[in-house]
Amino acid sequence: MRLGFAITRASSVHSTWTTLHLARAALARGHRVRFIEPWDFEVDPRGQLVARAHTFDEPQISADEMAEALTRRTAGRRFVDVTQLDVLMLRVAPLTTSVITFAQLAAARGLCVVNDPHGVVAVSHKAWLASIADLPTPATLVTRSRGAAHVFAEQRRNGVVVKPARGSGGRAVSLVRRGDALALDHAFDEARQRGDGYVVVQSYLSAAAHGEKRLVWLDGQLLGGYLRRRAPGEFRHNLKRGGIAEAAEITDTDQAIAARLSPHLLRVGVRLAGLDVIGEHVIEVNALNPGGAYHVDRLTGSNLADVIITRIESPPCSPPERTRWAHLVP
């Protein structure tokens, strides 16, 4: 199998990234791996979709060696016909219009793209999750109106979390206490400038002190998860913000959340996602660059990366669960 990874930037990869974890699992199974950056896609004079890719073919390469070859740009470079890949995995956050355009072109020509480029555009915006009424999410407002944000915030006893409507990796995310109008204005403006102008104002969960769980979801099933505990003095649980990863078991509550969310994800063609859960609430769905497999494997001794690659390779882009769930969603 020829597996392409569309990534944000080769110079920023790290050996702990799930993307490299998946790439090494693919190489170990005898597949060939190609990493493509957003500016490496082209349509040539013949109308073919091509890309100048970083290439890996040797199964023995370590994560550190792969990361170094990408960051230092010493990996082999080769032009590839994108439509001759077997699978293209979108691991780009934030999603750019150029990447989504090329991914849609590839999908239209028959390439298996994970996740589906049309569906991932919707799911990557927090308005998608907020719009699903039957999910246990915190009270959430998605708006461009500062006035509406103030009205909503005044009704939340524990304060609100303000963030861009599209994923920002923990940037421009603020905790605002009830009654602090100036702080809310500042947080709202910062979040609005960071993203597409839409801002998420979400009830702050006091249970957040107990940690946030990242669940690895594939084709309607939970494969595993780990707990992220926030750093001292920090309300965010992102590992990039100093959060600590701990082993965690999948609970009945986690399974119930996945069962309710799966029909909606599968309906739009999302097959692989990271679900962020606090207690009985689902906080966010990450379908662009869903991490988690590396840390679950490291903490529990599992091999989720191999499970994911095995499921992706056979049969590509046709999970039986999509048919099983489809009738549940209008």
Keywords:
16 strands; 3 domains; 330 residues; five-stranded antiparallel β-sheet; alpha+beta; seven-stranded mixed β-sheet; D-amino Acid Aminotransferase, Chain A, domain 1; Dna Ligase, domain 1; Rossmann fold; 11 helices; disordered C terminus
Any overview of this molecule?
It contains eleven helices and 16 strands. With 330 residues, the chain is an alpha+beta fold. The two termini are 35 Å apart. It folds into three domains: 2-114, Rossmann fold, CATH 3.40.50; 139-204, 2-Layer Sandwich (Dna Ligase, domain 1); 207-326, D-amino Acid Aminotransferase, Chain A, domain 1. The longest helix has 16 residues, at 252-267. The model is unreliable at 320-330 (pLDDT under 50).
CATH class of the largest domain: Alpha Beta
CATH topology of the largest domain: D-amino Acid Aminotransferase, Chain A, domain 1
Helix content: 25-40%
Low-confidence stretches: 320-330
Using only CA atoms, what is the Rg? 20 Å
Number of strands: 16
Number of helices: 11
The CATH homologous superfamily of the largest domain is termed ATP-grasp fold, B domain
Terminal CA distance: 35 Å
Please state the structural category: alpha+beta
Approximate strand percentage: 25-35%
The topology string of helices and strands comes to EHEEEHEEHEHHEHEEHEEEEHEEHHH
Shape: globular
The CATH architecture of the largest domain can be given as: 2-Layer Sandwich
Biggest sheet, open or closed, and with what strands and sense?
7 strands, mixed
